[in-house]
Amino acid sequence: MESLRIKTSGCFNSCGQHHVADIGFYGVSRNVGGYAVPHFQVVLGGKWRDNGGSYGLASGAIPSKRIPEVIERITARFVAERRASESFQDYTQRIGKRALKQMFADLAAVPAHADDAGFYSDWGDPREFTLGDMGVGECAGEVVSLTEFDFAAAEAQLFDAQLRLEEEAVGPADELAYGAMLLGARGLVKTEYIDVGDDPDAIVREFRTRFFDTQLFFDKYAGGKFAMYLFRRHAAGPRSSAEAAHHLIEEAQLFLEACHACQARLAARPAAGLPSPPVQAAQRT
Fold this sequence. Notes:
Layout: E1 6-9, E2 23-32, E3 35-44, H1 49-52, E4 57-63, H2 67-81, H3 88-95, H4 97-103, H5 140-166, H6 170-189, H7 200-212, H8 225-236, H9 242-268
Parallel strand pairs: 1-2
Antiparallel strand pairs: 2-3, 3-4
Helix pairs in contact: 5-6, 5-9, 6-7, 6-9, 7-8, 8-9
């Protein structure tokens, strides 16, 4: 256990090298009932030897206040189940990503604000922050639910991509990762244009026009970098090698976290007194 590396980054730009740790965490947020709840994305099985030989893959976002329990569960199970001198990376590969995710899946739940407000502030900072009013116009409630639905579907699809890659099904893994990015982009587009539909060309076109060209999607430090992951895969088509599919899965994870961050910025605009983008919808009869 002395050689186990645990690293943390404050964001998905990897400053703390969480992606090449045995157990890595990077700070993200999730919207729960109109509040921004601090979370950490759990990244397991990175290879810190051989100059960062391989990256770990994300295994789910867990509320910040439950991260100590995550560490306790993972390390206790590793100690109990490891084989002789088996490394943590070898252990995670042996038991598989599905078992790892299930190990702490119950910790992902966030209690309602009225039941436990402590989840809505971070470690060492008692301040609580809210995203404010989440919607604009008659369809506001529907827009929020549809966006969150697409984000949840995207994360589930990305995890399935990891499982398919483990099974050496490169083509399906690539398509699932690409599909996850499309779902994330579609979720954002729905905040402005509900009727975007399912056509990949339409999703990418609307996302580029409404979020990339306007720089609404841009990260403070990375700019439009994460959007380019979607644009490149959409233009280039399927990837044929396991290494390329693995790389796409990593890019898709970063893209989805950027989608969450963009949604949080948009939702905070009313609270800051800034105008929200207009919501377009088909005329109802």
